[in-house]
Amino acid sequence: MNDGASELSAPEVKGYMTREVATVSPDDTVREAVDRILDNNHNGFPVTDGRTVVGFVSARDLLSADEDAPLFTVMSDDIIVAHPEMDVNDAARVILRSGIQKLPVVDDAGNLVGIISNTDVIRSQIERATPEKVGKLMHTLEEIHGVATSEERREVRLDDLIPTQARVYADELEGRRYELERGLAEPLVVIDNPSASGEIEDDGTLVLADGHHRVMAAHRLGIKEMDAYVIAIADHVELGMEKTARKEGLQSITDIEVVDYARHPLVETTKRFQDE
């Protein structure tokens, strides 16, 4: 097996951080910072002098401070920062162990380029198309069908995809929309199954194995192409998921039903436990 998935780089902070960062100046007053927190629902800001991070001020720092005091007198100047190329899992460990909620992200020159929060870290762990997931699927295809596989990262046209999931949930689409609008969405996982005829002009089938909610959120946003891990099969095989797609009448992503009248089963289960 050509396990290209094992060569994929680990997810980095730059893939999940927010690039548009609200900041305050060291000379701003406590009252000005409080007003911004109330207006924007923030719980704190990096304090910057130009583009350089010189501190961080949280809502807690402002609670007992005089409203006319400049922020440089109340801010924390012993701050922890992340680098854009830092492994997002390492950033998660820092956030967890330090008890902070946000890490300013600075480049090699010390300039602020983003911020990553505990929410961003959690999002990075949910339904992530990890190299391990891709590698496991490649191994499964080889074991079941006795074919060679390879993997590559490329853009795929959404109109070319054959879905293998008949429905998605509207409430989960909101989360995927958030990710897409901020450039946080993980790549799709697609299987490139060559044509059974073997004719060169027949491009075969692109089967969507993972990422149906991401695809439908992208479709609603008018996005035409998405980044994907594409698992190429050397010879045509009859995939079980393709049989299921045909049985469900799934020929394109427009055949996927968006369920507006029910929440995701995991959400329902969680709510039921809370009610009990």
From TrEMBL:
InterPro entries referenced in this protein's UniProt entry, alphabetically: CBS_dom (IPR000644), CBS_dom_sf (IPR046342), Diverse_CBS-Domain (IPR051257), ParB/Sulfiredoxin_sf (IPR036086), ParB_N (IPR003115), UCP004699_CBS/ParB (IPR016427)
Phosphoprotein keyword on record: no
UniProt keyword annotations, A-Z: CBS domain
Residue ranges constituting the CBS domain according to the UniProt record: 17-74, 75-132
Protein's name according to its UniProt entry: IMP dehydrogenase
Naturally occurring in which organism (per UniProt): Halobaculum gomorrense
